[in-house]
Amino acid sequence: ARVIKNSYHLARNYLVINKGSSDGISPDMGVINANGIVGIVNQVTTNYASVISILNNELRINARFKNKTSFGTLRWSGVSPVEMFLDDIVSMYPVAVGDTIVSGGMSAYYPLGIPIGEVVDVKTPLSQGYHQIKVLLFNDPTQLDYVYVIENLDVDEINKLINNQGK
């Protein structure tokens, strides 16, 4: 799809793409480009869709280290359009500048292993028990032209299992 609108200066940024329900697009599909994650489809009309940008302070994305099993939650720093924070990584797990971050595969939006970025700063406060990890995106969300929309063919089956837990 072609990006026809892209906001990146707000707290809750979004994109509009030139594909909609007539093209098979529906809410909750993942959106990527050749360099990594872009966002999640939010609303759809016949010919267009709005996408919650990765640069949205309410969006949280499951992410992990490429060559390790530790995973956490990726969120926008709210400042730079190419910097994110990876939260919930316990300090007992080693983290190094240069580690690659990819999608964690624990959501219906993205499969495991979609590139996200690289660790550029790690702080480990003794009192908190968690690393403070800054990630530089591979993708520059301010320079988007074309994107791919991902359909998870198993999303209904997965959601049915999740929604039936505890019943």
The share of residues in extended strands comes to 35-45%
The parts where pLDDT drops under 50 for at least 5 residues are none
What is the number of strand segments?
12
* Integer-rounded radius of gyration: 16 Å
Order of helices and strands: EEEEEEEEEEEEH
Helix run count: 1
How would you describe what is shown here?
With 167 residues, the protein is mainly β. It has one helix spanning 155-163; strands spanning 3-6, 12-17, 30-33, 36-44, 49-56, 61-65, 71-76, 83-87, 100-103, 115-123, 132-137, 148-150. The strands form 2 sheets. The protein has a 6-stranded antiparallel beta sheet, with no helix packed on it. It is globular.
Features:
41% strand, mainly beta, six-stranded antiparallel barrel, 1 helix, 167 residues
Quick structural summary:
The chain is mainly β and 167 residues long. The chain has one helix at residues 155-163, and strands at 3-6, 12-17, 30-33, 36-44, 49-56, 61-65, 71-76, 83-87, 100-103, 115-123, 132-137, 148-150.
